[in-house]
Amino acid sequence: MDITGIICEYNPLHLGHKKQIDLLRTQFPEGGIVCLMSGNFVQRGQPAIFHKSVRAQAAIKSGADLVLELPVTAALSSAEGFASEGVRILGSFCNRLCFGAENAESDQLIAVARALLAPEFSEHLAGALETGVSFPAARQLALENMGVNAGILGQPNNILGVEYCKAILAQNSPMTPLPILRQGDYHDGQADLENPSATAVRNLMVTRQAWDNFVPETARECFIGADVHTLAAGERAILTRLRTMTEEEFEALPYGSEGLWRKLMHAVRKEATLEGILTAVKSKRYTRTRLDRMVMCAFLGITKEMLEASAPYARVLAFNHKGREILKHARQLGDFPNIGQKLGHPYEAVENRAGTLYGLFSTGTVGAPDAEENCRVYYGKQEIATDLRSSQ
Predict the structure, then answer these.
(1) Which of 244, 309, 375, 378 has its CA 20 to 30 A from that of 317?
(2) Do 259 and 222 sit in the same domain of this protein?
């Protein structure tokens, strides 16, 4: 069965994402499209703007066949962990991995990925880190010292693209990398009608400005009236959790090496705002996104041990008729532990806690935890299931 995988966040899904899906439909008209999507929390260490069921519905209505949930521990990992878990899950049944990159030359992305896996890279990286620069800067310096042109690592989508290629090589995955050109500015705060950024579209939605022209028409109905979630709305809840953590809990946090956990603990006990805490901890050695993920893991009760362990399953969020066939195909192969939740597994408690706490970031009235979890939508005459039980 010919299947293309996409690792995504769709936070929210916009015209650029639809362009990618349409391109795959044109290039592989008989193939299936599977989106492995971050759930209610995303890699930037923030809550997703819309509940995962809303975003999964939008993906199906925009042309995807099956949406799986990237486990929360993978979604809150570094770019390396994010890519590695995504490739591990999709590589068990997908033929290729499609992703956007500022440089869509797969040979160049793979060349940098091979260099990162080379035995001598670790030595060069250690030397670069001793200069006191951040990890991304040290990595680029190490590659340059190895004679590798690492210029492409200066752009965010290229960085993730290289990590995808690295994971495919390291895992000996049967998937073929399929990069497509990512046009526009990934972090652009102003929405571009041709190539909008998710950042710009989120800003429009949060500030209640006109956003509908920047998302596919088929997805608009999913977003209209959907509850918006922001980090600011849940700041007091985060501060409450941080203020009540023990020293042992801080020490167990991911991303807390080199005494960073202790620095965070001291800042928590002195600063009155989340921004004040993060500003006090920030230095040129540690990226802001690392600190954001560290704080979100603290809030969700995710330890370093949990983050480093591979998730035992990938939950089903939504599918259409072709997606149902892909599910059967994936489960028959059986290479990945499980597509679909393992009820009663210890990891279930981690994801349930994340779902329960997500409502605290609502900008509206905080409703029941995971209130939208079991809703259903219709795609023409074909029912699109977003209830886990209907996929079993």
Answers:
(1) 309
(2) no
